[in-house]
Design a protein that fits this description.
The structure is a homotrimer of 271-residue chains. Chain A has 271 residues and is of the alpha/beta class. Helices cover 53% and strands 14% of the residues of chain A. In chain A, helix 2 runs parallel beside helix 10. The longest helix of chain A is centred in the last third of the chain and has 22 residues. The first copy, chain A, is globular and about 40 Å long. Chains A and B meet through helix 2, strand 2, helix 3 and helix 10 of A and helix 5 and helix 10 of B.
């Protein structure tokens, strides 16, 4: 266990609860309610805004921006580009969720476009989505991974190094790298895969912690260990997906910094 | 306590359960599911429709219209304008939720445009949103208030008087005025602020009661005391946001008119 | 009771859990989260995609397509048409939910257009929606039926025969016909009418079973008995709408094929 990163996670959770950062989400229709509630329970403040006429103004108020392409269309991509470029010019973190990259060329290309133009600081996806971006392997089945985290690790590390950003691959274990540092987070529970939008929640929590921790790598390890721990706690109370989803959001609210410092399972990786 | 207004609330709840008014919502993506479920539990019938080609036809079937600008875009504003104008010409109540007014100029201007063109009968917002409209103070942080209800009260009363409509400012206590009458509703619970869309639910419940009570002021006091009481009941069963949200909708369903007459806390205000 | 159809339902549930079919949904904003979670709990894999630029590519990956017009606009209808035509040319099942047909002419006409152009295999609606399509009786109130299943049965049977598809009318009892065969499914619970999107969940479950059972009629009887049984189980645990909705999704997850074979109530109809 890396206790420094666990302590950092506890510190970051305190900071989110104290500073209540505003997180601007341009995200998909399926998860808007769920991710907004996750942010509120974590202690952050969500706003969803996608009109090209207002995204630049909105992102100026925000501590971080989420671009999630889960139900994209041309106009929404344009809004993400506008908001991302403005956020980046203001040195605000921009977190990309390439939901479904690898399933259609529109999704893969949109993710690559945003990476090229928006100063992305963290990309979070499942193994198939990350491989679609880092290796151009088009294998995603809808928004579901058909690949294992381990298979995506090496190309992710190279991509992170080359593009100078943090890549997070979520799955049974999560892998996080900024090209130099790399860790596995082993918190989590299998029922998280039975609730739609848990990946998107992970992404928006990365944004929340990025707003208070300018080290994108440690903001990401915080988010994924905190969310995984919430999954473990939820699974003690609930054994089926919908009651589990309720317990999951509740756990984001009840986890204390101390509990997170104790429960975070973050290990250095050799890969 | 104003027992007349509490009795009126009980009477209005009976009427909604009996008449099951159809409420046409043009609202934001984040809360559509939550507000539809709130209306169903209250006893009303929700419909969401935003296509410019159908909103005028749909609103003819409805008892009231909600215009909520929480995730607006140009086309949706146009639809709200079309539906609002038709509703107004048919003498149906139109309820405005200026979600995020004061955060971006698009939102403030859209709210003002709808106020100018749609015969709005009630505006409900948090203190910052209401001040953005009544005093042009642009201070909203995303969709979150940075102001107190008390600071917004005086301008709200003048605005209500001048525009001949009802203004509701929701917060720890809710303030409601039609320019002449003014009350505080002290029902509610702090966890309501930890669930996304509770403000939007308040707005859509105002619409439901406006469909059965042509006095917009008493329809509004009914909605806010009823919803606040549901929050109090939910807080007895649940101590974290997601289970609280479930209990909140359940409470809308289980509150009887008698319970509402007993539990409504509505007081006359001197301001 | 038709035990053959109940056994077929059990067999189909096993097949969905084994094959995890990808279900492509072009559906309304209100229910996206709820229907995605229903599919996951049933054992299928949901994806929501509506961009005209990607729907044809996405549907190639899918086992079935849902077109639901609940919050339609021109562009979404175009996407449904594109995806439906492609799905049909690939011999994949296309399931239509004419949500709100009969309430506005845009909805009725859109449903008829999709029926004419997309090789629809199953239409599922409430009595008013089905009558809007099969008899051009425009009586729907928002998305709520004002008619009884029995009144819609005869025209539905003729329509199914003429168009060579399956029609499902859901209500207190569900009626299903392919023109030749016809049954009533009497599973279900009244609280299902107090949760938004239960009809849409029924539709998407029909798609899930259609992806593993090429007989659209038995796929539909499976979906409606399975979902109705989930409602009965949920009602044992919960007595108000929001906790009921949670228990309903949970029940989709916990129902075993054996439980479904025992609990399915499907009876042959003479009509």
């Amino acid at each position: 266990m890396d206790t420094n990163l666990a302590d950092k996670a506890a510190h970051n959770l305190q900071a989110v609860r104290r500073e209540k950062p505003l997180i601007h989400n341009i995200t998909n229709f399926v998860v808007m309610n769920f991710t907004a509630n996750a942010l509120l329970s974590a202690g952050a403040s969500p706003v969803m805004a996608h009109a090209p006429d207002e995204v630049q103004e909105m992102v100026e108020l925000a501590g971080a921006l989420v671009c999630n392409i889960g139900t994209l269309s041309d106009e929404w991509i344009k809004s993400m580009e506008l908001a991302g470029a403005r956020a980046s010019s203001l040195d605000k973190p921009v977190i990309l969720d390439p939901a479904g990259a690898g399933a259609t060329s529109l999704r893969t290309n949109s993710a690559l476009l945003l990476l090229a133009r928006c100063g992305i600081s963290v990309v979070r996806g499942n193994a198939s989505e990350i491989r679609a971006i880092t290796e151009r392997i088009e294998s995603t089945r809808g928004v579901e991974s058909v690949d294992t985290v381990d298979n995506a690790v090496e190309a992710a590390r190279r991509f992170a190094e080359e593009k100078q950003l943090t890549v997070a691959i979520t799955g049974a274990n999560d892998y996080i790298t900024d090209g130099d540092r790399r860790v596995y987070v082993s918190n989590g529970h299998a029922l998280m895969g039975k609730v739609t939008g848990t990946g998107c929640v992970a992404t928006t929590l990365i944004a929340a912690f990025s707003a208070v921790d300018r080290d994108a790598f440690t903001a990401t390890t915080t988010a994924l260990s905190y969310f995984g721990l919430a999954g473990e706690i939820a699974a003690q109370a609930a054994h089926a997906p919908a009651s589990f989803a309720t317990a999951l959001i509740d756990a984001l609210y009840t986890i204390t910094p101390e509990k997170l410092a104790d429960g975070a399972r973050i290990e250095l990786s050799q890969q």
